[in-house]
Write a structure and sequence with these properties.
266 residues; two-stranded antiparallel sheet; 10 helices; 72% helix; 2% strand
Amino acid sequence: MIDKSEKFSWLVRVGYFSRAILYFVLGLIALTSSSKIAEGTNGIFRAIDDYPAGTLILWIMVVGLVAYALFRFCSPLFDIENTGSDSKGWAKRIGHAGSGIAHLVLAYSAYKFATSGSPGGNGGAQEAASGVLSMEFGGAILGLLGVAFFAAAVFQVKKGMTGEFMNRISGRAPDATRWLGGAGYIARGVVYTVIGWSLFKAGFMSSGAGQVKTLGDAVASLAGEGFIFTLTAIGLMLFGLFSLVLARYRIIPELDSSAGVPKFRA
């Protein structure tokens, strides 16, 4: 019989596998298909949908991306990564929450393609942002979410440069894991900065919900930036390979069977 901890671990690993597909395809189409990358996030899922068994892959990604988002939300709620409750720890935990929100939006986009083969109207991020802006203090909420992405971007780059992420990976992982993750985290930091700036503008500078960017849209916006775009695209492909390693070798927090709360196993 599979206990809670094993189910939790299995779902998180499916999440990392889904993330691997997402980032590798994103980097690949950025380098090889100007028409698809111009579609932003929709281009990623359209490319996946065109693959053999593409619909099945999309459904796996829906489940995996939701599971990964919930895993990220466990950080601010339960501090499963042991980041602490000081200002630095909370900055990391808020960054994880921002990542969780971003991956839920991506899961929604994948769901749209899995069920209808199309994005079904406006992008999920723009729809969500429009709904938030219609609320009281909605602009402040979006602006602060942008700040959370800025914080996440800083920590992504820091992790890439220091290699601190290796503390959460089994010693049996391939030797290339360190440099795959390093390049990937730095590239993701660039993308998170673009996403954060779009949210900050929408919330505090009244640029409108239509300017809010998700992962693919952020990469597409870099297309005219020459070597920055190329290096970011390559870095995202490497991050996809790194995520595939994590699907197998990431040390997953263990669920406390009595409380149902994840606890990290170092």
